Amino acid sequence: MQEKQEGILGKLDKKKKQKREALFEAAFSLFMEKGIQDTSISDIVKQANMAKGTFYLYFRDKFDLRDKLIVAKTVELFKRAEVESMAQVFPSFEEKVVFIADSVINRLDEDKQLLKFISKNLSWGVFHHVLLTETEETGGYSFYDGYCKLIRESGRSFRNPELMLFMIVELINATCHNVILMQEPVTLEELKPELYGVIRDIIRRMEEKSG
Fold it and tell me: What three-state secondary structure class fits 135?
């Protein structure tokens, strides 16, 4: 009996997740096509082939959906980068951070619609939420926990790890947008060596030196 109930609950959870993802996909498509302001909840549920009441089981309004969609999309980027990094051996903390940054940048280069959406809507407040909070959108994943573990494993100490991460994220966001979308003022391949050099410099500058 208990196994049967667990099976039913598992199916309900799966169905709930599928509906949520369908609303995310519909909203993302419409946000990119029409913009957030010109997209209505009616538009989203129509495209997702759902009743309007279903929308409110998951989101307060379209801006709540937008924020949770940003979290979900950002988590996907970092989870993919982290998985890729697990198959590598790195000589230093700097090189692993650069590898993860490169993975994220390459993904955004492959999916320019995603870049437009994230760069336009991702504030530090939302990103901070992604870092520190395990929610349905993050799937129990905490990038910041992994980041802190990486620092511990390096055996090094940094003055303000959160500030260091903030500076790296803002640097990537600020420099890559125009370069990827318009190849200005340089190409992405020309930018990367300079960008990664600055990331390494930020990390070294933030390190607390013993003695």
Answer: coil
